[in-house]
Structure to design on (613 residues):
């Protein structure tokens, strides 16, 4: 009799219930059907194939693009007493042979391999034909698509590898990349047969998103304060250039924060050392370019701060999404300065292909809109990914109302009228942001002279405002879709279907002028309130106590601390304060293997803490 999925879930993985989507994917795999699971980072995709692999027997082959990902998964499975192994290019022949022997003996349930294993050596294909492969898993399956960001040609060879096996295994593919194009590519290029496709929503409810506009000095101060306030937590600070990485890291160091850095300009040794220090909880903060992150499965990243605005929401969501894999409340803060736009435009202009530039500009505009919107950030992001959220989340910087939004309804209407007057005066032409701002500020220019803008009624209507503020108001109108920007290089502004109703109506309009502007009173418009999972203050000390023990035990074994137990499990212990093995087993994340290995020491630590506090 094989065990039921729920039994395996609790005995082996220590969890009581499935997360969204897991159960149905597992059921389909167990019924022999190919599946494609599209779920956001941290949703728990691994479990969807690891668990059926254990029930199906034989060996499951898992294709994974990075050695670090494989290692993390194998170590994590071993912690739970699962027989998992990997073969990769960093191993010597003897090591590989040992693993293959173990597979042949039937003592490996999950075998992780890189996709190149299938093209480099036909011997591996032949080897697989000689063992009992029942499940073939393709993780990070978007790598098969040229539309994705991490295309890997070797993924295209996987269907042939599957086809050459004596008996076709169930094929299961997983990715966090949402676009329909990528999804179709996966089904096609991986040769999935009548797959069960599941796409869960892209929302990450435990992430708190916020945007703040500030200059470089203020960014330094903000980052330092945030890092110090969360001294016990792990965080990533992303910068858009190597220079900014170095400067930010140095700044934190001079203030006594042992931050490490990571970018493509460093030698391998420093990069590896930085990454390890961060993953093993020795350095609390890593300051990095976007070169850092792919293949990092560290589950207890509590915050991701972007010092600069990235070039697209796709990139932003992926980078910010490295926070809170364990499902605990985490912060994603985007620090924005208008100069960030110039940096991104410069990068785009390096591209020689006009179509590429155009689509990059469109993605950039969506990112700029995100920075300038006064409405729900979560909803704005989900809409970008094609969802249709009809709520304000109640738990982002804009919904929670601490984002320095100012009521600029009157100014906004003046700006829109000006767009109208300029078109009227010029015989129907549209103009870009800088001309518009010049007219609002009554700044003479060749163009204004040519078209006689200094004679229109809106000339200089905002000349008492600061120039930067007027620019921000225009950006906010674009973000709110009251103005649209042309796709060409001129980026001219024109009305949208929303513009006239706004001009006639009495809807208010908010912009994020400076971070100092007093927050406005906002009407209650939250439809969904999310519960905060953070621990109470009294538990924080206990958490620190257990965290210390976890770090010691991790060091003894040479594995990252979050593989011993994730943060969520430690919080679970703080909440229930178990005094017996049976109670400990009730804590999510404690399965039978970990209970056996670590239960004694954690129970002792809990007892010890309660006696001495
Ligand atoms: P993904 O690959 O989708 O980004 P992972 O498979 O790495 O996510 O899982 C993220 C975290 O969620 C891991 O720490 C994992 O142990 C945890 N997890 C997975 N399934 C469950 C569950 N049913 N209950 C609680 N935690 C879970
Ligand atoms: Mg994963």
């Amino acid at each position: 009799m094989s065990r039921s999925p729920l039994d395996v879930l609790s005995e082996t993985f220590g969890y009581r219930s499935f997360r969204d989507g897991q159960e149905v994917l597992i059921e389909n795999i167990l019924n022999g059907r190919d599946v494609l699971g599209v779920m956001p980072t941290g949703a728990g995709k691994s479990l969807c194939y690891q668990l059926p692999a254990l029930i199906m027997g034989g060996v499951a082959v898992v294709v994974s693009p990075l050695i670090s990902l494989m290692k993390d998964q194998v170590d994590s499975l071993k912690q739970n007493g699962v027989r998992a192994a990997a073969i990769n290019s960093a191993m010597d022949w003897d090591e590989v042979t040992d693993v293959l022997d173990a597979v042949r003996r039937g003592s490996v349930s999950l075998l992780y391999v890189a996709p190149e294993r299938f093209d480099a050596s036909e011997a591996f294909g032949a080897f697989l034909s000689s063992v009992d492969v029942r499940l073939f898993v393709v993780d990070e399956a978007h790598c098969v698509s040229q539309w994705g960001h991490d295309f890997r040609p070797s993924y295209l060879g996987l269907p042939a590898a599957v086809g050459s096996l004596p008996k076709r295994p169930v094929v299961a593919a997983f990715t966090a990349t949402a676009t329909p194009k990528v999804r179709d590519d996966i089904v096609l290029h991986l040769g999935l047969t009548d797959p069960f496709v599941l796409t869960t929503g892209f929302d990450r409810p435990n992430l708190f998103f916020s945007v703040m506009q500030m200059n470089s000095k203020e960014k330094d101060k903000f980052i330092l304060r945030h890092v110090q306030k969360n001294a016990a937590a792990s965080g990533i600070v992303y910068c858009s250039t190597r220079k900014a990485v170095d400067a930010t890291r140095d700044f934190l160091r001079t203030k006594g924060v042992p931050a490490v850095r990571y970018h493509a300009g460093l030698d391998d040794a420093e990069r590896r050392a930085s990454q390890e220090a961060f993953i093993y909880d020795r350095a609390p903060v890593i300051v990095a370019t976007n070169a850092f992150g792919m293949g990092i499965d560290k589950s207890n990243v509590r915050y991701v701060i972007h010092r600069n605005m990235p070039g697209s929401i796709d990139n932003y969501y992926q980078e910010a999404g490295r926070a809170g894999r364990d499902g605990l409340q985490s912060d994603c803060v985007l620090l924005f300065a208008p100069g960030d736009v110039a940096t991104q435009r410069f990068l785009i202009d390096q591209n020689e292909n006009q179509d590429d530039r155009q689509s990059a500009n469109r993605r950039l505009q969506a990112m700029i809109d995100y920075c300038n919107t006064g409405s729900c950030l979560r909803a704005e992001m989900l809409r970008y990914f094609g969802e249709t959220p009809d709520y304000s989340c109640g738990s982002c910087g804009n919904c929670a109302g601490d984002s320095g939004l100012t009521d600029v309804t009157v100014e906004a209407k003046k700006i829109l009228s000006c767009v109208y007057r300029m078109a009227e005066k010029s015989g129907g032409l549209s103009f870009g942001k800088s001309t518009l701002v010049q007219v609002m500020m009554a700044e003479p220019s060749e163009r204004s002279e040519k078209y006689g803008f200094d004679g229109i009624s809106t000339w200089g209507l905002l000349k008492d405002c600061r120039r930067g503020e007027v620019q921000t108001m225009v950006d906010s109108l674009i973000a709110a879709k009251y103005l649209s920007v042309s796709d060409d290089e001129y980026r001219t502004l024109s009305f949208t279907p929303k513009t006239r109703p706004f001009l006639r109506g009495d809807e208010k309009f908010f912009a994020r002028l400076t971070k100092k502007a007093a927050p406005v009173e906002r009407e209650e418009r939250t439809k969904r309130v999310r519960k905060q999972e953070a621990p109470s203050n009294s538990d924080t000390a206990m958490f620190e106590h257990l965290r210390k023990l976890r770090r010691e035990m991790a060091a003894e074994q040479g594995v990252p601390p979050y593989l011993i137990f994730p943060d969520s499990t430690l919080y679970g212990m703080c909440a229930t304060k178990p005094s017996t093995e049976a109670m400990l087993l009730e804590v999510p994340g404690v399965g039978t293997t970990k209970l056996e290995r670590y239960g004694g020491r954690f129970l002792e630590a809990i007892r010890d803490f309660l006696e001495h506090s």
